[in-house]
Design goal:
The structure holds 2 protein chains of 2 kinds.
Chain A lengths: L1 H25 L4 H14 L1 H26 L7 H19 L7 H25 L3 H23 L21 H25 L1 H11 L1 H6 L4 H28 L10 H11 L7 H21 L6 H14 L1 H14 L1
Chain B lengths: L1 H28 L2 H5 L9 E6 L9 H15 L3 E6 L7 H10 L4 E4 L5 H10 L4 E5 L8 E6 L2 H14 L4 E6 L4 H17 L4 E6 L6 H13 L4 E5 L4 H9 L3 E5 L10 E7 L2 H13 L6 E4 L6 E3 L8 H15 L10 E2 L5 E3 L7 H5 L8 E2 L7
Helix pairs in contact in B: 3-10, 4-5, 6-7, 6-11, 8-9
Classes of the chains: A mainly alpha, B alpha/beta.
Chain lengths: ~325, ~375
């Protein structure tokens, strides 16, 4: 069955890639050439590799959290908002509280914690009032985004230039340059086995998975529903907030209106691509980061509008959502062979 | 079951192997771009690329830059051009890197927010030329450029001052940055030249591109009695609203007259092409040096639209006279006496504001009404 799922994912990706190749041909490009140049720019160029890996780390850390909560059958669509709020919370520590002690550590942890609480909130609404977390997590994205606009266009705007960006943070708050790249990647690679262990080799992980597979059975077994819902969402929000604070402290050094270009949504696709398996998330996130980074190459060599990247991510999401059907179909085909 | 699984595995491995071999072949064949990009030596092609903050059809800032790109693409036969649009501020470095890898030798980054990334790119790629628009940081291979758009704004202000009946002018403004503040003050200064009673009412919409906010601001200004509306934001919305309400407005950056044939008073136009032409010819012939372009009427980098007949003939003639003086570099709008609205003398009689004073302007002239965040 694992094999069928793997094949189904592969097939889903292939169909998306084939469809996207059609788009490239429509724009008069050569898809093979375009993909190769994307690959070369994203992985073989030293600066490109660095940026791809930075992106992969952020994407991977968010996706790891999502893979946990998705396993519990809870749809956290709010990683985007949790990422943004993580950056904002770190910004609050830097710009308002000015807590110097520990350099980037306090703002980083504050970002993660606030991100976690921001995700736990829909969890509380879920177990107390039965509100669907898909809606609440999604809507809270906009709350975080408008909060970002409020500070960037208003109270935290850089008075020196008047542009809607916050001032660069002092160097004592910055993650060491290596931290933005190797550090982030190391955190992702360390977290992956930890979360794998948590999910597959602890009682807690077992409960999460049982709850995801069959809620009635979990409740019949006496599992604490509240604990599963709130803690599962907290973990995913914590990691999204960590990624947001990490990008603020280690990469951008400031907040701007486009602080997140949809990483929290893309991470959903990455988690699905990895079949919500923590050990596969790093691979999926590196591949996807390469695609995101290389999408500008498509704009350059094939004159495809950069907005068309959304088309590819949309295609991929649609195909991944339908992997269950593909899986069944492959199973049927295999029995015939 | 197991032999079927075996089959799928073997089949899969075969496909993967074939694909891998093919890809490896294509990859090793790559690298053509790098070869073409060897700087220095003999060459017959120069490759230049532009990075835009928004869509080329935004009908404002980016559209005007792209008109400039098309201008040089047509005139310089040694030139190959490329552009990447809608690049967020924090993603310009990846785009520059990929343009360099694809062999582009001169790269224009056309938004203030690209400044730090452009400087970093200059450090990484010392053999390429970078030109950053509207910034103030340079290095030996990174130059800067901007146009003196305040000059045509001054002339637009003269037209506005001549036709207003309420003596209230409106201004829909994107962000409270020195560039926009300069435009507002120049517009107001021009209007006061022909009509000392005018006030200019400013509303910030905090966006370069937000047609809904621009419409709301324009309607609000009309509501308080403004009958001429100027704007610095990247849509023709204000002109459209003016047309609907029977008041006047302008073209911004490029000709917008079709959006308000009756409302169109005149306009302020950008001609980035002349700067691009100068940079690219110098780059091609190997005499380019990092500097700051700060071009206006004198160099042909700005222009005004034809003036509507609604403007009295004597004012039209006066506008054209001042335009000629600026084209000869013998007239500057920001010449003292200039007193800001808090009563501080900004320029004594006869003194012109310096370039750095213009580039850091954070004050409004007396008679400009509205909040100014960070006012000095």
């Amino acid at each position: 069955m694992q094999l069928y799922r793997g094949l189904a994912t592969l097939l889903a990706v292939s169909i998306a890639v084939a469809a996207y190749s059609g788009v490239i041909i429509l724009y008069g490009g050569d898809p093979v050439e375009a993909y190769l140049k994307m690959f070369r720019n994203a992985f073989l160029d030293p600066y490109g590799l660095r940026e791809t890996m930075r992106l992969a780390a952020a994407l991977g850390i968010i996706s790891l959290g999502l893979s946990i909560v998705f396993r519990a059958g809870l749809w956290n669509i709010g990683a985007e908002g949790q990422y943004v709020l993580g950056g904002l919370a770190a910004g609050y520590v830097v710009y308002i509280l000015s807590l110097h002690g520990g350099g980037p550590v306090v703002p980083l942890l504050m970002g993660a914690l606030i991100g976690g609480l921001y995700a736990a909130l829909p969890g509380v609404l879920r177990w107390r009032l039965g509100v669907n977390e898909v809606l609440t997590t999604l809507m809270l994205n906009y709350v975080a985004l408008y909060l970002l606009y409020y500070v960037v266009y208003g109270v935290w705007r850089d008075p020196q230039t008047g542009f809607p960006v916050t001032p660069e943070i002092p160097s004592l708050y910055r993650l060491p340059e290596i931290g933005g790249f190797v550090g982030g990647l190391a955190i992702m690679l360390l977290l992956a086995p930890v979360l794998y262990h948590l999910l597959f080799h602890t009682r807690y992980g077992f409960k999460l998975r049982v709850y995801g597979l069959n809620r009635e059975a979990a409740e019949y077994a006496g599992y604490d529903r509240r604990m599963i819902i709130v803690s599962g969402l907290f973990i995913s929000g914590f990691l999204a907030g960590l990624a947001g604070a990490g990008d603020f402290l280690g990469s951008y050094y400031r907040l701007m209106p486009r602080f997140s270009s949809g990483l929290g949504y893309t991470a959903i696709i990455v988690a699905l691509l990895a079949s919500n398996h923590p050990l596969l998330v790093p691979i999926a996130s590196i591949l996807f980061a390469g695609f995101l980074y290389g999408s500008y190459t498509l704009a350059i060599v094939a004159d495809i509008p950069t907005e068309a990247t959304y088309l590819m991510t949309g295609l991929l999401l649609a195909m991944l959502v339908s992997t269950q059907y593909l899986e069944r179909w492959i199973g049927w085909l295999a029995r015939r062979l | 079951m197991s032999d079927r699984r075996e089959f799928v595995k073997v089949f899969g491995a075969g496909v993967a192997g074939l694909a891998g071999g093919f890809l490896a072949g294509r990859l090793s064949a790559g690298g053509d771009a790098q070869e073409a990009a060897t700087p220095g030596g003999e060459r017959d092609v120069l490759r230049a690329a532009w990075i835009y903050i928004s869509n080329v059809e935004d009908f404002g800032w980016t559209y005007a830059h792209d008109l400039g790109r098309r201008y040089v693409a047509e005139r310089l036969d040694f030139l190959e051009t490329e552009y990447v649009e809608s690049v967020p501020e924090n993603e310009s470095l990846p785009v520059i890197t990929q343009l360099v890898n694809e062999g582009y030798e001169v790269i224009f980054t056309t938004s203030f927010g690209y400044m730090d990334d452009t400087i970093e790119a200059g450090r990484r790629y010392p053999d390429r030329i970078f030109m950053h628009c509207s910034g103030f940081k340079r290095r030996e291979n990174v130059g800067t450029y901007f146009i003196r758009m305040y000059q045509p704004f001054y002339l637009n202000g003269m037209a506005a001052g001549a036709v207003t009946e309420s003596n209230k002018l409106g201004y829909v403004a994107a962000h409270p940055i020195p560039e926009v503040i300069r435009h507002i003050n120049a517009f107001h200064l021009g209007a006061r030249r022909v009509n000392p009673d005018v006030e200019t009412h400013v509303i910030w919409i905090n966006a370069w591109f937000n047609p809904e906010a621009a419409r709301a601001a324009a309607e609000q200004l009309i509501g308080i009695g403004c009958d001429v509306l100027a704007f610095t934001e990247d849509t023709p919305t204000v002109l459209q609203v003016a047309e609907e309400n029977g008041v006047y407005s302008f073209s911004h950056y490029s000709d917008m007259s079709k959006y308000g044939p009756n409302a169109h008073l005149t306009g302020h136009l950008a001609n980035w092409g002349v700067i691009y032409e100068d940079v690219l010819i110098r780059a091609y012939t190997g005499v380019w040096e990092s500097k700051d372009y700060w071009w206006g009427f004198y160099e042909g980098a700005v222009e005004i639209s034809p003036i509507s007949d609604v403007v009295p003939e004597d004012v039209r003639e006066e506008i054209m006279r001042i335009r000629e003086l600026m084209a000869e570099n013998s007239y500057e709008p920001f010449t003292g006496p200039l007193v800001d609205r808090r009563g501080r003398v900004r320029a004594e009689p006869g003194r012109q504001l310096t370039k750095s004073e213009l580039l850091s302007m954070k004050w409004f002239l007396e008679g400009v009404v509205g909040d100014l965040p960070g006012e000095e």
